Amino acid sequence: MSDSNPVYEVSPGDADEVIRAVRLCLTGTEVPAKLTWKMGLFDAWANRVFVGKIAPHLLAVRAAAEAGDVAAVLAADRVLGGGEHSTAAGRAWLGKQRGGKHMDVLPHLSAAVGSGAAAGEFHTVLALQAHTFHVAHLPMLQAALYCEWRAARPDERSVLSVEEFLRRSRSVMSQFAALIAAHVPVAPHDSAVGR
Predict the structure, then answer these.
(1) What values do phi and psi take at 135, rounded to 5?
(2) Are 36 and 80 in contact (CB under 8 A)?
(3) What pLDDT was estimated at residue 99?
(4) What is the pTM of this model?
């Protein structure tokens, strides 16, 4: 299935679809206890770190996975530098991927992490999962941002926490369409909706 006809398309305020994207992207794991954001002003962190660094990383890994470019995935993983918590979470997730041999790029990332050639960042694995399960670009970014938000709030497990996340992150997510447009090439028959 190509990404121009995604399985799940999400509008910025749809809690059920964000939950579905998170579940698909996190197949084989749960939201880690710690990632990159540690607390403080979420919008300030999200605008600086997520929009400025993590979202472009997710889109680059996704594009490399779609092209089957393992070298580009590994290079992006080495460059992200998400920190020890992101790397630990990504490596733990990769360690659970024993049945993932059918997935085209994940086994290569796992082998590279084992040999020390890649870090195994959480967001790299998430982007590869999104590619594997045909989650479109917008819900992939929403799922990754949600994981960062939830990792700093391990006590909030309800659907209401997703709704609160959507309310609090609306200004950040309003930037996702422009990020996708800037980082994802559009084939002549594609539209922004199919990204």
Answers:
(1) -85, 130
(2) no
(3) 53
(4) 0.82
Q: What does DSSP assign to residue 5?
A: S
Q: What share of the chain is helix, strand, coil (3-state, %, to 5)?
A: 65, 0, 35
Contact 28, 93 (CB under 8 A): yes
In sequence order, which residues have a C-beta less than 8 Å from that of residue 50 and are 6 or more positions away? 36, 37, 144, 145, 148, 172
76's tokens: 């992006």
Element (H, E) at 147: helix 137-151
Please give the DSSP secondary-structure letter assigned to residue 135: B
Instruction: Retrieve residue 187's tokens.
Output: 């084939």
Q: What are the 10-residue block averages of pLDDT along the chain, 195 residues in total?
A: 40 73 83 78 87 94 91 91 84 71 73 89 92 90 90 61 82 90 72 49
Angstrom distance (rounded) from CA 64 to CA 104: 11
Q: Within 13 Å of residue 157, how many CA atoms lie on the same side as its CB?
A: 4
185 forms bridges with which residues in the sheet?
Answer: none
Q: Give the CA distances from residue 155 to residues 29, 149, 151, in Å, rounded to whole numbers and listed in that order.
A: 17, 12, 9
What does the alpha-carbon distance between residue 101 and residue 97 come to, in Å, rounded to a whole number? 8
